[in-house]
Amino acid sequence: MNLAIKQNMYNPLDTIEHIFYRDNVSFDRRGNNELVAEVFGKWDNMLVFFAYEEHMRCLHISCLLNIETNSVDRSKMFELLALLNENLWLGHFSYWSEQKMPIFKHSMILQDEEELFTNKISKIIELSIMECERVYPIFNAVMRQNIQPSDALYREAMVM
User: Fold this and answer.
1) Looking at the 3D structure of the chain, how many domains does it have?
2) 3-class secondary structure for the chain?
3) What domain range includes position 46?
4) In sequence order, what are the residues at sequence separation of 6 or more whose Cβ sits closer than 8 angstroms to the Cβ of residue 15?
5) Can you tell me the distance from the alpha carbon of 155 to that of 143, in angstroms, rounded to the nearest whole number?
6) Does residue 3 register a pLDDT over 80?
7) Does residue 7 form part of some domain?
8) What is the pTM of this model?
9) What is the average pLDDT across 40-52?
10) Is there a domain that residue 147 lies in?
């Protein structure tokens, strides 16, 4: 079978759908190349977005933390993002100005023969959600309680 034809037939979002069916996670397939799922978290629900760019064979994952505030000190937010991202091995945190919420992002290039994709993407989803759960109280302290980023990180480290 021609590799170009085979690549066009495979869509990683189909695999992600099966994972969510298996795990009884609510999701919505928004077209051929987008999927969004609602994940019940320890602190609040999170929306996990998936976008597939088939020409680049790139899968993008975004996890939106449901912490909104109308007045965010952007300098504090950028300081917090820098501090959090220093120690991440996977992905990065960002601030989605339009939604006024923090977001975790990760992208991955898919291989031609990705036999272990189900296990790999399951682990990436799990790690992404774990990172969001870990930092939720930190973002909450900075965004809603006006605590300095370094103090919020220190306070959370003492709890762990």
Assistant:
1) 1
2) CCHHHHHHHCCHHHHHHHHHHHCCCEEEECCCCEEEEEECCCCCCEEEEEEEECCCCEEEEEEEECCCCCCCCHHHHHHHHHHHHCCCCCCEEEEECCCCEEEEEEEEECCCCCCCHHHHHHHHHHHHHHHHHHHHHHHHHHHHCCCCHHHHHHHHHHHC
3) 3-71+91-134
4) 117, 118, 121
5) 15
6) no
7) yes
8) 0.84
9) 91
10) no
